[in-house]
Design a protein that fits this description.
The protein is of the alpha/beta class. A nine-stranded mixed beta sheet has the order 9-8-11-12-13-10-14-18-17, with helices on both faces. Strands 1, 2, 3, 4, 5, 6 and 7 form a seven-stranded antiparallel beta sheet that branches. It is elongated. The longest helix is centred in the N-terminal third of the chain and has 25 residues. Helix 9 runs parallel beside helix 10, helix 11 packs across helix 13 and helix 13 packs across helix 14. Helix content is 36%, strand content 21%. A hairpin with a 5-residue loop joins strand 17 and strand 18. It folds into three domains: 152 residues, no CATH class; 167 residues, P-loop containing nucleotide triphosphate hydrolases (Rossmann fold); 94 residues, Helicase, Ruva Protein, domain 3. This is ATPase. Keywords: ATP-binding, Nucleotide-binding. Pfam families: AAA (PF00004). InterPro entries: 26S_Proteasome_ATPase, AAA+_ATPase, ATPase_AAA_core, P-loop_NTPase. Belongs to the AAA ATPase family.
Length: 507
């Protein structure tokens, strides 16, 4: 074969291969997954526009609620479908469609992936972990919405993707779903707590039951609870009128005092009192999420952010030459909430003396500091009656009150528990049916002897550490005087002209 014949043969083979490829392309059936999406959108896959927004993992229930509300408005009969195929947890929807179209990946229509998310302390809802739905944009154009939740081996976020032939339709759909998401926020009006997940190392939001507590269950000196309520609850009740008069709503309350005096108990009362507010509780290492908590509070106002034992992160920066990163995060979070936001920061501390002064340098950080003192004689008697309210208390309380000067509420709670244990042991078989005790304590009589036995045990030498931990009044664990001033209200003026009200209710 000469060179000319070889060239002709090569050309003929090339033409044959090209024609065969074109014939195969023309006859190849479009994958069902691609056909369903492009058929609905009315355009080729290469012209499909994708708009995606990503949220924190704990926003998935809110995202589902927003999309559910959107579908109810624009396509109530729409049905979700899923995507089957290995590796889908690592691919976005556009890549999955492109892979299916090229035949490189075995992506096809499959079952929807579902998961369960909490929407309250005792309530859950079903959410889409991976799925698509055909619907319409607010203007009526066809769009496809895709939802993705945190994947076990993929991304740890929640995501909404809108596919459309025109970008404006995708954006309009995403924006309306986002508005409906906020209108149907599962966190609004709830009591929440941030925590760390050891499984993924991410931040999670946990629902807590709202405490139910009457004012008579909070044993404080006269006027303390009223002052706190006026500052926290009262300002919220006048929020509209205060805004009309140009006054800021954001406020900060510092509850300080020795351990066990009732700071957390007072906070729990406020949480139950403010039933219309979202409450976000930050304790321990979770305080590092204070920026996220402040943003959530701003979004869900009226809201309260509770930071317990704030001295653990808000120690005066002069105590460390490197400063305190968590303190800076706390200050930034408090400042980042607008003054007209109905957001309250409630801080508790056992050591007010080491707190960073900057916490009180501006209104809205801390504008009221209240000492929760150790109970006086009347308070100690009230605490004994409070913790024995479900029992038959037949005892002269005066000797116990006299012997427990300087003790805290925690001390009395443990005292009553030990007195009940003493009574149950005397009653026989731990207070069961043989002893005749009635469930709930109604049949158990608590006498002065029971209380005295329990008190003697707690005051014994071997219980010294217990007394120190519960607060028996023997010593101040901080070794410094409490932060108090005489009188009802002291306007502490600072160099920049701001002031903070310090209230003392001690003897």
């Amino acid at each position: 074969m000469d060179l000319s014949d070889a060239k002709h043969l090569s050309h003929a083979l090339s033409t044959l291969m090209r024609d065969a490829h074109l014939t195969l392309e023309e006859n190849r059936k479009t994958p069902e997954l691609v056909a369903r999406v492009t058929g609905h959108l009315g355009c080729d896959l290469k012209h499909v526009v994708s708009v995606t927004e990503t949220f924190a993992a704990w926003e998935q229930a809110n995202l589902q609620r927003g999309v559910d509300a959107y579908l109810a408005r624009h396509s109530p009969q729409a049905e979700w479908f899923g995507v089957a195929g290995q590796g889908r947890e690592h691919d976005d929807y556009v890549n999955m469609l492109a892979g299916a179209a090229r035949g490189y990946e075995q992506y096809e229509i499959g079952a929807v992936d579902y998961a369960t998310a909490s929407i309250g302390p005792d309530a859950t809802m079903e959410i889409i972990a991976l799925g698509l739905v055909l619907t319409r944009s607010p203007g009526g154009s066809p769009v496809v919405i895709g939802l993705r939740g945190p994947q076990e081996r993929g991304m740890q976020q929640s995501q909404i993707t809108v596919l459309a032939a025109e970008r404006r339709d995708a954006v309009a759909t995403r924006d309306e779903a986002g508005r409906l998401m906020r209108e149907n926020d599962v966190y609004r009006g709830q009591v929440l707590s941030f925590m760390w997940s050891e499984h993924r190392g991410n931040d999670l939001v946990t629902f807590l039951p709202r405490p139910e507590m009457a004012a008579d269950q909070v044993v404080l000196p006269p006027g303390v609870l009223d002052t706190v309520e006026r500052h926290i609850v009262g300002i919220g009740e006048l929020a509209v009128r205060l805004r009309e008069h140009g006054q800021h709503l954001k406020r900060g309350l510092l509850l300080h005092g020795a351990p066990g005096t009732g700071k957390t108990h007072t906070v729990r009362y406020l949480m139950g009192r403010m039933t219309g507010s979202t409450v976000i509780v930050m304790t321990g290492s979770a305080i590092r999420f204070v920026s996220e908590a402040a943003g959530l509070a701003r979004r869900l106002q009226p809201a309260v952010v509770v930071l317990e034992d704030v001295d653990l992160v808000a120690m005066d920066r002069s105590f460390s030459p490197e400063g305190n990163p968590l303190l800076f995060a706390l200050l930034d979070a408090m400042d980042g909430v607008g003054a007209d936001s109905d957001v309250t920061f409630v801080l508790t501390t056992n050591r007010a003396g080491v707190l960073e002064r900057a916490l009180a340098d501006r209104p809205g950080r801390v504008d009221l500091a209240v000492e929760i003192p150790k109970p006086d004689a009347a308070g100690r008697a009230a605490l004994l009656r409070l913790y024995a309210r479900d029992l038959r208390l037949e005892a002269d309380l005066d000797p116990i009150v006299t012997a427990t000067e300087g003790a805290t509420a925690s001390f009395f709670k443990e005292l009553l528990r030990r007195a009940v244990l003493t009574a149950l042991r005397e009653d026989g078989a731990g207070g069961g049916a043989e002893g005749g005790a009635v469930p709930g304590g109604a049949g158990l009589v608590l006498t002065g002897a029971h209380l005295e036995t329990a008190l003697e045990e707690m005051l014994s030498e071997r219980e010294a550490l217990t007394r120190a931990l519960l607060g028996s009044g023997e010593h101040d664990p901080d070794g410094e005087p409490p932060l108090t001033v005489s009188g009802d209200v002291y306007p502490g003026d600072y160099d920049d002209g701001t002031s903070v009200g310090f209230v003392s209710f001690g003897p």
